[in-house]
Each structure stands twice: as structure tokens, then as C-alpha cells.
Fold this sequence. Notes:
Alkaline Phosphatase, subunit A, 2 domains, 4-stranded antiparallel sheet, disordered N terminus
Amino acid sequence: MNNPKSNRRYFHVVSLSVGLLCLGVTSQAKADAETRPSDSSPPNVIMLMSDDQGWGDVGFNGNNDIHTPNLDAMAAGGMRMDRFYAAASLCSPTRGSCLTGRYPFRYGILAAHTGGMRVGETTIPELLKKKGYRSGFFGKWHVGWVKPDDVSARGFYSPPSHHGYDHYFATTSAVPTWNPTVTPEQWESWGNEEGKPWKGGMPYVQDGKEVSENMAGDDSRIIMDRVIPFIKASKDKPFLATVWFHAPHEPVVAGEEYKKRYKKFGKSRQNYYGCITAMDEQIGRLRTKLRELGIEKRTLVLFCSDNGPSDGLAKKGVASAGPFHGHKHTMYEGGLLVPACAEWPGVIPPGTTTDVRCSTVDFLPTIANACQVESAIKSSLPIDGINLMPLLTEKVKTQERELFFGYRRLQGGIDGKAIISGNWKLLQEAKKGGKIRLFDLSEDPYEQNDLAATSPERLSVLSQKLAEIEASCQRSRDGADYRY
């Protein structure tokens, strides 16, 4: 897998008894230096994530109806990643993968509201703390409850402060994208009543205290109102800001000024499109502030969504996975591929694109390399992601790797899994009695031609690989990676 001629920065290969190759960490100082800026100064890092935004729900992927000028400018100012995958086709498992560099089946959050982040995991803010970084989390957490008294059978208290963040402004899970403390009109799902307080009326917690101030209007703006002061206060030392928007997750509501921009469309599109544009406006506000403070050239900004578009909104034609088949909760490309881009002026060449397959598990090793903290990664924790800095800086054009995806709700018979090896993809549909499918993505990127019946040898090889990865993940999940 390692090719010294390609100048790649990889993680050492760990051989498992079943023959599975996992990516671990080793020290390669010379290779590290070649993927960093010439002054070797650790950058600030900002991790932006939208919620249920499909691959096709952004201008830089060809949507001419939704206005996303700031995300488009960010993509144009750095690298657009055309084949970027979420680790799962729904939120909580993907979010944990961003922080740990590990597959959801490895660290044990297999679906939404089914657990919390274990303190035994090593997260990005914990790594960066060793380098003197100040860290803040803002938005939708969803890998543990943020209020200690919110007792539930399906999760537990595990706020950002338990995982390396110095400051946080967070909700446990979804809120309305406009007026987040109030249940919106015609919304009665999840035990809420129209016009009544949303989840008690104070879903946000800031550093352990419920928040009631500045809670009206656009939720993306409410989040960014907390991000900007954190960045201003941190501008003279390295910082990590993790900003996970609720937009455009349901209940998706836009303010009147945003809906007016889409008056030629129906109500659903006005809210959905307007909500995304409102979030985009706040990303523009963030990019402007970085330039006002003169720190944009020492700040790495990463953006992606947590999974494909909402099932219901995709089926109505409101949300879009672009040309790809599937949506949230499916293991098809439309459920896993998400819009993504990265910007670091002076380091990532502007106007670049890649169709190399990348994933949310790659954030930790990439940030660890850029910020020079790879040596702090515990060797006892297998890392599934790879360092993308050679790709982002165009020192390499290809990356060889396998990718595993999955989520599970066994009480409903849901056990969705997929593996991509080379250009071949094997998936098990995420529904009771889900079928096994096989696709050649090089010839069939939109998954129209199932080859499971006609390519039995290929099916057997990928099935074995999938079983090996799942077995390795189960050992991790059952305690092999943790000290007692």
C-alpha cells in the first residue's frame, strides 16, 4: 500500500489475524514536513458540518436553485471533494467518526440516540490540547446527552467537555432551524406540539448551563453568534472550532426574508432552500471574520454534511442527492456521499478538485498531520482514516484504500453495511431482509446494475473483507482497544 515514489503520508499497516489491514499511526517526520506549509506553524482548524444536506444541495455541485455563494467561494478557494463519504448514512455514527478517525462500528455508536461517546476514545480536541490548542464546540452534538438530568434508556450524558473541548454551546439533538426553542407550525412529530416549547424550551447548553438569551430567529446565526467571539478571543493562539449546524435537518424552517428569495417555489422548497442559504450566509460571515482578523492563511477550514438528504424530503424532490441513487438511511451512494470542500489559503491550491474517495474518518489523521500531533495518537486505538494532506496539497493524485460504512438498529431488523474496495462496492440494504448488492462504481456510479448474481467470485471476496472488518470492529467495540 505504501509507495515511496508517490510522496504519500500514510499510517502503518497493522496485520490482523484474519488478514484485515487496518491503518495505524507511525512517525515519519520527513514525510510530515513535506505535506505542511514551509513555516511548519500549526494551523487553526475549523470543522464545519451541515445536517442532512444532500450531495446535490449546494451550488458547487451543480444546484442552480439553491443559493450557496459562500460555500461556493470556499470550494473555489480550495479543494472540492467530489467523492466524499460520511461514515454512515445517518447522523450520530458519522459525527463520532469525525472526532475519532474510526468507523462507527468500532467505537460503538451504531445509530442515532443509541449511546454516547466513550471517554476511552481519543478525539481531535484531546490531541490538539497536547499542542496548546484552545477548543470550542458549537451546534448539534448528538454523540451523548448535554444535560446530566436528561435520563434516557437510549443514551447517556457525555457532553463535549468530556471529550477535550474547553468550551461548548450545544444541543443533544435536533432543533427547529428557525426559532429553535419553539415547536414550529404543523409539526407534531417526536412528541412535540405546535407552538409549545421545543424539548422544554431550552435545548442549548453552554458550558453546563441552559441558555435562554439570544435564542430567536435563524439557528445558524444563533450558533455563529457564539463561534465568532470564541475565534476573536483565540486569534493569538492556535484554536479548534467545531461548528455543527442543524440546517437543513427537520424541522426545517426558514425566516421570511429567506423564503422570499425562493418565492417561485412551493412552501417546502422555500423553507429548505432558505434554511440552507441562511446557513451559507453564516459561513460567509465566518470567512469574512477570518480575513478581518488576518488569520485566514493559518486556518484550515473543512466542510461536509453528515449524511445524504432526508428520506421524506428526497422522495418529494425537495432535497437532492444529485445524480446518485438513495438518500439518508440507505447504503447507496446517495445516502453516503455528501458535499465537501477544504480551504487553507497558501497551502491548499485554489480551484482544485478531486474524485478520490475520502471520508469523515479521515479528519482526525489529516488534522493530526497538519497540526503535528500524530505522535499523541494512542497505538492501542486502530485508526481507520488516512491523512489527506498530500491529496489536499496535490502532492498525490490518488489514494489506495478501502472504506467501510454501516449503521444498525437490530430491534427493527436494520443492519445496513457497505464496503468499497477499489472501484467495487458491496452493500447490505439497511432494512429488514435487506438484500446484498454488488456494483462496479467505475462503470456504474449511480448503482443501476446489480452484479451480485453475475460476479460470484467478486461477491465472495468483498463479503469476506466485509466480515473481517466487522469482526475487527466488534473486538474494538467489546473492549480490545480500552484499558480497564
